[in-house]
């Protein structure tokens, strides 16, 4: 169950539209390391996480990612609202415009549609938490790449810096979650079996 | 079967029983100063929304920290204070400017359905919005 809150997690007010930047930043909406990918990954992994504490973390980070999804959409909307046809045609946004006008649609910067193959739910807590930590770092790198392009535009760079900082915090929390799960396993071999699937009824390594 | 015992412990886990004896001083709380109700009444719409953004962010950040540090008393007290301030400010905002969440609609004094009358968050200031 979710309730909508009618505000952005961090305010966005972009006064100058820019078609090229909209196309770049769109990657964090529907690209391989984007916010919808993050939210779907965490909210879906909850069911096989096994550990109630980590289920809570996945719920809360997955929910915050939805707020980030809305923030990135707002950036794209405000960067495309009011563009002239000349700007659209010259910027490279033309092919996107033909299919979506200036509606907000999840795709990567290079035009690849959002694809769930960008995320994984392995159903194994240790595997999934490693995926989550990697995902946060990949998103952080993408925001770094965006920041190099928009560094001199405070009204865009400011919310992007906020989003980048949240990737760092989430990475820290997932690292703690991984430690919590590992502390409950045999430290000689964390990977002997899938704690969410095999335990406590069987152990593939010894057949019991 | 050492691993089996470990897993049984995992299944029986109660987060509130974990780590209580360990002193954790790790939470670096976002700086956020709560204000009294009378101060909320004197803020304009932009200022009040800014305040709600601040305390809400503090509450979210503390929430994630508590998920992995459930016995950190300092973080727990901070989280409760931020959540209380947030709820108070949301009520004042709903009464004066319209609801931010659907459970605040009863606070509104307007005779019309304010939920759709106020701008949506993605509408920028330059186009007549107030954010």
What can you tell me about this protein's structure?
The complex is a heterodimer of chains A (208) and B (131). Chain A has helices at residues 19-25, 27-30, 35-45, 52-80, 85-91, 94-100, 125-150, 154-183. Chain A is mainly α. Chain A has a single domain (19-183), classed as Ferritin, core subunit, four-helix bundle (Ferritin), CATH 1.20.1260.10. The longest helix of chain A has 30 residues, at 154-183. With 131 residues, chain B is mainly alpha-helical. Chain B starts with a helix and ends in a 34-residue tail after the last helix. Chain B has four helices and no strands. Chain B is elongated, with a radius of gyration of 20 Å. In chain B, α3 (45-68) packs antiparallel against α4 (73-97). Chain B has one domain. At the A-B interface, α4 and α8 of A face α1 and α3 of B.
Give the fraction of residues assigned to helices of chain A. 55-70%
CATH superfamily of chain A: Ferritin, core subunit, four-helix bundle
Strand content of chain A: under 5%
- Give start-end ranges of low-pLDDT stretches of chain A: none
User: Which term fits the overall shape of chain A?
Assistant: elongated
Number of helices of chain B: 4
Topology order of chain B in helix (H) and strand (E) letters:
HHHH
Briefly note the structural class of the backbone of chain B. Answer: mainly alpha
Number of domains of chain B: 1
Overall 3D form of chain B? elongated
Percent helix of chain B, as a range, is 40-55%
